[in-house]
């Protein structure tokens, strides 16, 4: 009986090991996909007189980007509570190529050509994830909330 239990334990260990080995390529591909993503934060200061007009244009651009561009994972505009002219946009693209394609779209061209006089300052900050695997969990959680 003990021999059978030992045998079952060894078989179980081998099966678990084989399962892990079988999943490794998928895990590797997922991690590699995460490292190819482009993440940026745009730090923008808006001229106060144009704030509402700017926000309207930005909302339209962000919505069109998410709806029409498969390579745009997130464009999430927000503003500082204590200084509403300080806009921040979290941008996540599937790749650098997706970002470059985004720059050529009609909705981005419209945004870029209609807002320069509204922007007091602009700084684009490229970011790297501290823990790319956690980003996957965030997106999975968003899917579960639907």
UniProtKB/TrEMBL annotation:
Residues 38-131 form the ABM domain. Keywords: Membrane, Transmembrane, Transmembrane helix. It comes from the Bacteria. InterPro entries: ABM_dom, Dimeric_a/b-barrel. The chain crosses the membrane at residues 12-31. It holds the Pfam family ABM. This is ABM domain-containing protein.
């Amino acid at each position: 009986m003990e021999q059978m239990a030992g045998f079952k334990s060894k078989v179980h260990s081998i099966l678990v090991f084989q399962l892990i080995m079988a999943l490794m390529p998928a895990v590797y591909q997922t991690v590699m996909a995460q490292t190819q993503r482009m993440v940026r934060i745009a730090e923008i200061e808006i001229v106060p007189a144009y704030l509402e007009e700017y926000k309207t244009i930005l909302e339209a651009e962000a919505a069109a980007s998410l709806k029409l561009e498969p390579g745009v994972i997130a464009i999430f505009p927000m503003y500082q509570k204590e200084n509403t002219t300080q806009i921040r946009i979290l941008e996540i693209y599937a790749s650098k190529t997706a970002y470059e394609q985004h720059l050529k779209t009609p909705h981005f061209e419209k945004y870029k050509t209609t807002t320069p006089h509204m922007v007091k300052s602009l700084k684009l900050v490229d970011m790297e994830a501290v823990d790319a695997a956690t980003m996957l969990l965030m997106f999975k959680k968003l899917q579960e909330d639907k």
